[in-house]
Write a structure and sequence with these properties.
Helix content of chain B: under 10%
Largest interface: A-B, 119 and 114 residues
Order of helices and strands of chain A: HHEHHHEHHHEEHHHEHEEEEEEHHHHH
Number of helices of chain A: 17
Number of helices of chain B: 11
Shape of chain B: globular
Distance between the termini of chain A: 97 Å
Low-confidence stretches of chain B: 1-21
Mean pLDDT of chain A: 91
Helix content of chain A: 40-55%
Radius of gyration of chain B: 31 Å
Oligomer: heterodimer
Shape of chain A: globular
Low-confidence stretches of chain A: 1-8
Largest sheet of chain B: 22 strands, antiparallel, barrel
Number of strands of chain A: 11
Radius of gyration of chain A: 28 Å
Chain lengths: 467, 1008
Amino acid sequence: MTMRHATDTVRTRIAALVAAAVLLGGAAACDTESLVDLKDPDLIELPVAVDPDNLESVRNGAAWLLANAMTGPAANNATPGLIGVSGLLADELWYASTFQGMRDIDAREIFDTNGNVGAVFLWLQQARNMAEQADSLYELNAPDSGDRAFLHVVQGYGYLLLAETFCSHVPFNSTPLAPAGSEPIDYGPGLTTTEMLNESIVRFDRAVAFADAAGAVEYGHAARVGKARALQNLGSFAEAAAVVADVPDAFELHVEYSDNSAAQNNGVWYNNWAEGRSSAATDEGGNGIHFFNFSSSGVTSDPRALAGFAGSGLGTSIPLFIQGQYQSRGADVALATGLEARLIEAEAAADGGQSDAYLAILNALRAGIGLEPLADPGSPAGRILQLYEERAFWLWFTGHRLGDLRRLIRVYGAAPYGLPGMTADDLFPVGATIFNRAYGDDVALPVPDNERNNPNFDPDQCVTTEA
Amino acid sequence: MSRNTFVAAALLALIGWTPVEAQQGTVIGQVVDRASNQPLPGAQVYVVGTTIGALANQDGRYIIQRAPAGQQLVRATLIGYSSESRTVTVTPGETTQQDFQLAESAIELGAVVVSATGQQQTLRELGSSVGVVEVDEVELAPVATFSDLIQGRTAGAVVTQSSGNTGAGARIRIRGSNSISLSNAPLLVIDGVRVESSPRSFGFSLDQEPSAIDDLNPEDIESIEILKGPAASALYGTAAANGVIQVTTRRGRAGQPEFRAWSEVASLETSVDFPDNVQRLDATDDPLDPAFGPCPLHFQVLGWCAPGEALYVANPLETDSATVFDGGSRFVYGGSVSGGSEDATFYLSAEKTNEEAVYDSENSLDRINLQANVTGALSDELRLHATVGYTETDLQLPLSDNALFGAVPMALFGDADPGSVAATAGYESPIQFHYDWKSFQEKSRLITSAGADFTPLPWLKLNGAAGLERIARQDRQRIPRISSYEVFGGIYTRGWIQNLDYNIYNVNTNASASAVFDLTPTLVSTTTLGSQYLQENSQFVYAFGASLAPGLEESLAGATTDFQSSESNAVNATLSSYAQQQLAWRDRVFINGALRGDQNTAFGTDIGWIWYPSVSGSWVVSEEDFFPASDVLSELRLRGAFGQAGLRPGATDALLQFDADIASFQNLDVPALTIEELGNLALEPERSTEWELGFEAGLLGGRFGLETTYYHKTSRDALVQRPLPYSPGGPTFQWDNLGEVRNSGVELLLGGEPVRTDNLSWSFHLSGSFNDNELVELGEDAFGNPIPPIGSGAQRFVEGYPLGGWWAYPIQGFDDADGDGLINFDEVEVGVFDEDGELDADSVAFMGEALPTRELSFGTDVTLFRMFRLYGLLDYKGGHDKLNYTRAWRCTFELNCAAAFDPNTSLADQAAVMALFAHNTYAGFIEDASFLKLREIALTFMVPPSWARVFRSDGLQLTVAGRNLATWTDYRGLDPEVTFSSAANFTSGDFATLPPNRMFTLRVDASF
């Protein structure tokens, strides 16, 4: 082979390869996206969610998230929602299983890394946000719909329940229904308990307005009860009573559950009945309400707090009592009721010094289920403690108890009331827990540590030992 | 085949398909071992600077057709031998003979590896380190899985067998962990087909789950090449950042059909003694009294209970009448036939495996592996090949680890008092729970490929291949209709069953053209262009039902209530184009440059092609004239490489998407939409950049080989599930490209054959590596604020520290100030407290690495009288810690460890308990987990040929082998290797995990 021949051959080959490369590159450049642009049949994207035809599905999303927030999902070792977690911190439940995070809540020593508390915080915020986003779609597509009343009720309860159970300084922000990255979230600082309650009242007022305009009576009643509950927390008892004056005794708005699918099951029932992790409590930590008697002959209890002995908790020898409030997986949770409206009126009467009216309301309620009438304790503090014990029974396992205990400390234990027996040591469980651990001094749930990713949130402002 | 691929292949075929212009001849010869003169089947012989070559047949003979006329350099290579080159004068139309005598060598520069392009290269041409695992029949005896096979056999690949459950997978990491949120498991490529290698190959949550990589049958493997990082795997592009394990299955060789048969019988036993459960109770019998139950030291010191006198001891797993362990067994039967002619070869094999775990039931594996490989030459220019591998698996898995009803956790967490022992034999709950909860997997897996190598001209080779992987898998769980779970309420009382049916299709195509030509008489250019297309499709359908009908407890047909169903689909495609250019100067200096471009479904709409460059150089300096001839340093190669590879996000991670839920609203069950993922349209693949430098040296005439590599790998745009604040009420995380992770380290491999005589030979390999892993930075959020550390539990991701390291509030000190021999709350100091009496979150401290940072293995092989062969493997892993959750739980929550009741328990141990009990810190339970294991021993008797012929066998071997025979460690748990949830990316705690078993095997190999 001569050098000239070799060079020609090389040139020929290079030319052929360059031609191949050019053509290959050309082929690669044209319409290759279709080869990788595959459709996932499971994908639901933004255009579907904002389609006016799907408004109700977005509304239902808010309903589902609220149901999830109240009781948690029915799943192995799931967090039993606001009702279960707040009841653990208060005296409605004790933890009968093994997980440390749940024991920490029960023992009133909660870290901001607690995943169970984080889950409740997240779910309440998700319900609130979804209700806000759904409402913005209704505003565009069905501005006069009565569903807007429901969505504002959900928003109102989102603020209210976080105010009642979490520390002061809870941040609220939004996740818009917009393409990712188009609207970076501008995080805000925490709201104080008072600010949260006021925000809830704003939502409830709007709910009443939408309900009245659309004839959505039930949502109007629920909003009035919610607003009154917020006013109670602010110490405005007379105003609260006035708000619920027209709410009928028989009114009930439920957070709904169903036995149709596991996703719709009542998580408190599952956690307590099916898994045996959290137990109904009695006399917890000395200060806890005596909800029922337990002896060798069995359990005897008030009809408003039915309980049964079920051996020991999952993986422990801790006594397990099943609660009778939710006896099936599809049992609904009462979010707002005429009963609660009457209790609000009773508190206003007690606050106003109308002891007869106060007792009349309570005894009328008791008579309705065959309970003996109560006697007047004879002092303002006695009436308040009596009322809150009545509330503990009437509103058992509905997510009220922690807020009530904190309100006793925050409102009645402080000026201008300054009533005795209204400190955390008087009201919350103290001493040793059922799993033999010293109770701490928390009275509120902490904002979860994920919020440290919010640059405007100061975790030091969240003090869980303050009501 | 994609349009690109087709166009490329057709075009290149067209330009190359020109009449033969040069006259050609034939080269024939034989390749033999220089020492023994035995033929070396499988040796590759090729004309350097062309694409022309051949494989030696069973007699070591080869025929190279169409060799270019003139003086040609012909080279013979084989793994384990030094390559040899000879200049041959090829006369047109005539046959020239050239024999080769190859000398054994501890370094293997002549080994041929298949690159991502489908073309072959020798190791001497590559600038990167490639781990080559040779599969030896003797070493197969103590090996049960593919993961076992690569354990301790190549530097830089860390394989951790974290459980003794039959069917449980292993954790494989190569050169450390790159990714915080994506899998760090390597890619698996079998015969050029990229296949499913998920380490979590089970649909329901079990802490010990099978790994798809263990479906492979070690018997069918010819060789394993481990591309350790982007410097070597760049041509695999997206998804190759964690390294690539390339497996080549066995091929037939020209010659008489060779029949092989093998059989194994093995016994399995637990490798540890389980600890006693010990308790001393308080006197009260009132269950509502907080003092009721165990009365450990730390309750006593608080005055919470008064200890009774009796100290109760129970140990259900070591009690004959109560234990669930009765020893396991493993039976393997297999056979293969291979052979063929110069024009066509075949390899067929079948194997059946049955393994019964150490449990008395509930854990077993039945597997059938079939493999068929054929090659054929339609002409001198066109060779075809096809492979079909089929695996059928029937697996039953037990509850274990962090599943409360698993036998081991129930035993380790059980009570010891007589009442509990009478009620549950000392298990925490009735052991029937373990038997009632059943988990199964049935899987059929087909991996098939077909391809063609077309050499129209001596300088041009076209390669095309297509592969299909099909997995049909059913994962099933059930409990019977009459179940012990009754005590937990109605949902479990009537039995239930849930199924997940998986259908997975993966399609690969690859087409490439490689042209070789001489730019100058000493400079050879090889140019490769090609295209690949990969499409992955998976679908699973879930169904649940309860209240099982009598007689129909194993089928959903028996379910009568609580029906649930769902479906999930995933699709993903990657389209690639690549170009590779190699320059070989004087056949001893090699420069490789390559560029691969990927387009992927997952990248969202804002991203186009992603490019991955690589460049490497190799210099066989010992072949230079100036290199002093010396037996001390007989071979030396210097090399360096740089490359990039990626990891892709999930197919839909870039998109804002919604979840379909179901709500109860106004007494109706109605569909509900909620926000599932925020998406991120700018999402890109995680990109890892690696450079490495190293050398191989042949010492003492090739008897010893030393290979050393330093690497530095940086993963940028790390794909992170960035935690979001909860206050916006959206998803809990958002995929984002954040931060940077660094891995750097050194790998060392020393091997050799110090003794080689007719009657005694001794060889060894010592391989080790050190890896330094660091999360360099997490990056900033949209507002420029630094991203806070990820994770708040015991394992965290913190800038400046290793990924997933152990973190806890440290025990600052302890002092028995009151001298009572017990540590009280006040006598242990933990972390730093703020003015509110709360632990300062910033005082949490790094406690240690979670994954091994050092590994060292020593394998040795002694052969006596060509009749007896002893093989052993020692395996060391260290530089890491393990959180001993088992001890923590037993001593603190379950209150059944001896130390909790023994007044002589050390103050340090008491402080650890008190620190956890009072301050929620596991600091006292994070322990050094370094260990040395006698991993494998095998003694083989090679039956003399005259004896073997009695059985009409050409070769007969009997092997007795053991696995996991001894462990040396300071770790105080059952075994330092255990990890619950081993398939997870970083989870490395020990939580009631059954340690890897001890296995004794008797194996018979026969060839006919």
